[in-house]
Specification:
The chain is of the alpha/beta class and 617 residues long. The protein has a domain of 239 residues. The chain is built from 25 helices and 14 strands. Helix 15 crosses helix 21 and helix 21 packs across helix 23. It starts with 5 loop residues before the first helix and ends with a helix. Keywords: Transferase.
Length: 617
């Protein structure tokens, strides 16, 4: 009997785990409150009853686990006196303020995201039975993470926090007003001490800009791989003296990545955690050259659309997720599975950081496009069999190599058919190379133009364009890290019924609602598992009519039915838990919890309406 493919095992495990999660769904206010207390160790916040009624009215699926991110984000603040950050958030700009249920943003001009987030909160506040407590919500309007607090500071705050379940008679059910704060805090100023793009080594300013990883590493747990591994300073050497060992291709794993099942992602939470993968400091643009570097190591409430697992922002749905135009795009891209072609389509710009002649080979999107280019693969295959140790499996672009041991047991690699096989289904390319302004030449990019051409595809929002019609007819698409994780691409691909391959270092508000291998197809951030994933789902067929590689076919031609199930399950589930109503519910609960943790009376605040009668009995 043939052993099950690792992906089959992972799919079966995902389905089993998801069934367990669904069994925890609450169907009444009392049940939801009881599960809250069991999981959180506190009473629900004041207004929990109204929140639950809103959820029931909107037909939401209430599973306590779906809001885990809120408690992860707010957890450290329970270990800090609320007055220490209440004045800071009031003085911060840009921010959104809520007073007596009215939502406003004083500095909305010039910040499109702030305007859309304000619209989201105003939409929530407009519902008749919704009353939002007074809060100030500072926001990060950049794409990149803005807060990386040292691990020891966060650990101390978490260890100081206490979970207390007071007797119902002792519980207060009204938040404090912030009207007095508006008057008394009018002259207070707050400087987060932003570390900007010219961040230098503390010991020697002459060394020039230091790597972003120098802030990531201290934020990782003490015994994590990233914390105990060195910073590869030669990657950022001002004169470009990078060692061969730390070239982009040589930093890719030559064996199965850690924390995988025979090379395939087995835990999505771990897969997106940079603390587990020190090599990402030289293999991901967000760490190599962030597009906008403005980071603080001070802890205070700061809200944003995405973050890496160790950054300390408080997540809210992205402004583009909230934007209704994406719903239109999603619906337009949706075709019945059988009417789609067995192709993977991806046409987006070369974002994800500031790529230059020195660093572009370290960018995730560049690696993805190069790996799916037949010409690059022909060179890589030739080098794989040439026997030259220094260039085994190396592509001409120098940003990826085929694993010399063929650990994934790829049939196409054994048959020297990979280039032709990929050409049969990969329809990918850049719409904009985002070339460094100092080095661009009349729209061309001198340092990587020989490896990449710009496709004629229009922006994915323009569904009338010819290239978008091609994308519309593809069964597969990919969601890769662009600026800030580009979460909207992922959501509208789910809603379009695509089988979505996703690789990311970013966390999103909805992560606890989705299950890898059930709703989407996870990839390692180095993308070394890409070929194995596609060979499993597509089989080894090359272009129609080519019989030269007929002997390479996997029995049944791949696993189309499994890909179809993932695509359909993802689409159906997104229609239940990733709606605009679900975004409002997430934000509603977040605001209630945030208002409590910033209140001086927070230990006594709670909702115990379901326990009052019980205590009297």
């Amino acid at each position: 009997m043939t052993a099950a493919h690792p992906i089959e095992q992972l799919i079966a495990t995902a389905e089993k785990e998801f069934r367990v999660v669904l069994k925890t769904q609450s169907t009444s206010l009392e049940e939801a409150a009881a599960k809250y207390r069991k999981k959180r160790g506190r009473h629900p916040p004041p207004g929990f009853d109204t929140w639950y009624n809103f959820a029931a009215e909107k037909g939401a699926i209430v599973v306590e686990e779906f809001w885990d991110q809120i408690y992860h984000d707010l957890g450290p603040f329970w270990g800090v006196e609320p007055h220490r950050f209440r004045h800071r958030t009031h003085a911060f700009h840009p921010k959104i303020s809520i007073r007596d249920g009215v939502v406003s943003a004083p500095s909305i001009d010039g910040h499109a995201r702030l305007a859309q987030w304000t619209d989201m909160l105003q939409s929530l506040a407009s519902y008749p039975h919704v009353h939002l407590p007074d809060v100030d919500i500072p926001v990060n309007v950049n794409d990149e993470p803005a807060m990386l607090v040292p691990w020891e500071t966060i650990d101390t705050a978490l260890s100081t926090a206490r979970r207390i379940l007071l007797r119902p008679a002792e519980v207060l059910n009204e938040y404090s007003s912030l009207r007095d704060l508006d008057a008394e805090n009018s002259t207070f100023t707050f400087d987060p001490e932003w570390l900007g793009p010219r961040l230098t080594h503390p010991s020697n300013a002459k060394e020039g800009p230091r790597p972003f990883w120098s802030l990531v590493r201290p934020a990782c747990p003490l015994h994590s791989p990233a914390h105990v591994s060195p910073i590869f300073t030669d990657i950022w050497h001002p004169q470009g003296h990078t060692s061969d060992e730390h070239s982009a291709a040589n930093m890719l794993p030559i064996h199965f990545p850690n924390n995988t099942l025979k090379g395939y992602v087995s835990n999505w939470t771990i897969a997106i955690d940079p603390c587990e993968y020190p090599n990402l400091q030289g293999l991901h643009g967000a760490f190599v050259a962030p597009g906008a570097m403005s980071v603080t190591t001070s802890l205070f409430p700061l809200f944003g659309a995405s973050k890496i697992s160790i950054s300390n922002e408080i997540l809210i749905p992205s402004s583009s997720d909230w934007n209704t135009s994406y719903s239109y795009v999603s619906q337009a891209l949706a075709l019945p599975w059988g009417e789609n072609e067995e192709k993977l389509c991806w046409h987006y710009p070369a974002t994800g950081g500031h790529n230059t002649a020195r660093n572009w080979q370290r960018f995730q999107r560049h690696r993805f496009v190069a790996m799916l280019n037949a010409t690059q693969l022909e060179v890589a295959e030739a080098n794989l069999h040439a026997g030259n140790e220094s260039s085994i499996g190396l592509a001409h672009s120098g940003n990826f190599r085929l694993l010399p041991g063929n650990e994934y047991k790829l049939i196409t690699e054994n048959g020297a058919a990979m280039a032709e096989w990929v050409a049969g289904w990969a329809q990918v390319g850049f719409t904009d190379l985002r070339c460094d302004e100092d080095e661009s030449e009349k729209g061309a990019c001198p340092y990587n133009g020989a490896h990449f051409s710009v496709t004629t595809a229009a922006d994915s929002n323009n569904i009338e364009a010819e290239e978008d019609q091609k994308e519309k007819s593809c069964k597969y698409t990919a969601a890769l890290d662009g600026d800030g994780g580009d979460s909207s691409v992922f959501l509208h691909s789910l809603n379009a019924g695509k089988a979505v391959l996703k690789a990311s270092i970013y966390k999103q508000w909805y992560d606890a609602r989705l299950t890898a291998w059930l709703h989407f197809i996870p990839m390692d951030n180095t993308l070394v598992d890409l070929y194995g994933i596609m060979e499993f789902f597509l089989g080894t067929r090359t272009e129609a009519g080519n019989e030269d590689f007929a002997h390479l076919k996997i029995e049944g031609g791949g696993h189309d039915a499994k890909a179809k199930k993932i695509a359909q399950t993802g689409k159906e589930w997104a229609g239940k838990v990733l709606r605009r109503e679900d975004m409002l519910l997430y934000v509603y609960r977040l605001v209630l919890e945030y208002a409590r943790v910033t209140d001086d009376r927070r230990v006594g605040l709670g909702w115990v309406g379901d326990l009052i009668g019980e205590e009297r009995r």
